[in-house]
Amino acid sequence: MRIVFGFALALLMSPAAGETLVERGAYLANSVMVCHNCHTPRGPQGLDLSRALSGGSQVFDEPAFKVTGSNITPDKDTGIGNWSDAELKRFLVSGIKPDGTKVASIMPTAFYTVLTARDLDALAAYLRSVPPVRHETPAPEYRIALRPELPTYAGKQASEQELSDKLARGRYLLTIAHCLECHTPEGPSVVHDFAGASGKGGRTFKGPWGESVSPNITPDPAAGLAQWSDDEIKRAITQGIARDGHKLKPPMAYASYASMTAQDLDAIVAFVRTLPPRN
Ligand code: HEC
Ligand code: HEC
Hints:
Elements: H1 2-13, H2 21-32, H3 36-39, E1 42-43, E2 46-47, E3 59-61, E4 65-68, H4 85-94, H5 117-129, E5 141-142, H6 166-176, H7 179-182, H8 194-197, E6 204-207, E7 210-213, H9 230-239, H10 254-257, H11 262-272
Antiparallel strand pairs: 1-2, 3-4, 4-5, 6-7
Helix pairs in contact: 2-5, 4-5, 6-11
The protein binds heme C (HEC) (2 copies).
Residues 174, 177-179, 182-183, 205, 212, 214-215, 217, 233, 236-237, 242, 248-249, 251-252, 257, 268, 272 line the site of one heme C.
GO molecular function: electron transfer activity; heme binding; metal ion binding
Signal peptide: 1-18
Pfam families: Cytochrom_C (PF00034)
């Protein structure tokens, strides 16, 4: 009986039956990792999905660099149509391009080191499957030779098997969704103070929406989410509605997270509740 139950559980947790690599990649790219947030142009109505992944509208202008989300469609001249799968997969976990140069740390590769072998295959398969769009994005400008690196938060590659554990799955999803990149304050000497203040919030985001500041998402009783119910946290993530009912501003991609599976959303909320409380 026990063996049968264990087997049934394994089936339940294994990748959705019949899900192809391209479908898995689409789910990761569109619902969890939200590549569009930086790589798809924005029009007056929001993201222009008719030119999906052909290069972002936002310019990241910092002391160390000035960059825009690249064209990552398979267009051979202006996109990544000439990259091999191996080059793309290496890039996703290292930020190193086929020509050996490293991209600006705005591209969250520091969080992608945990990606399972299957999820890397899935992302590569999906990126190959999207329509090529010809669109030249401005060349990156790197202003100082030694650019600050994101401190390693993510850790080493996860295995598919680990993801059948709810909390491990939540940690994995929270990592590749780079939630803590936005919800951790800048440190005194490092870009993000993950060691001292993971999840404490306090980063400011400026854009067409004006200004938003990331809140504390640790279970701290006063400053964080301790008083929130699971449903309230899920409503904030997927609908952008705060506990008191007010509408939350971008750049968090609420509408994309709304297409996450119930199982993945449960896992994220369960893991968020285990973050060390900070105030
Ligand atoms: C927070 C913003 C952000 C997110 C989210 C993001 N990227 Fe990027 N990405 C960038 C920026 C900015 C660059 C260009 C950096 C540079 O030129 O130094 C980049 C560069 C790249 C490149 C290199 C392309 C080239 O021609 O050099 C690839 C490939 C890429 N991203 C794929 C992805 C994929 C796939 C996802 C989702 C799984 C993703 N990115 C999510 C910001 C982002
Ligand atoms: C690109 C940056 C960014 C990313 C990525 C991001 N967030 Fe947020 N998040 C914000 C900002 C900014 C706000 C506050 C918006 C406002 O106050 O209008 C917010 C609000 C929230 C809230 C509401 C909390 C409150 O007190 O109102 C929760 C919960 C939350 N985020 C959880 C998450 C989780 C979980 C993830 C990953 C799945 C995530 N966020 C990814 C920037 C981000």
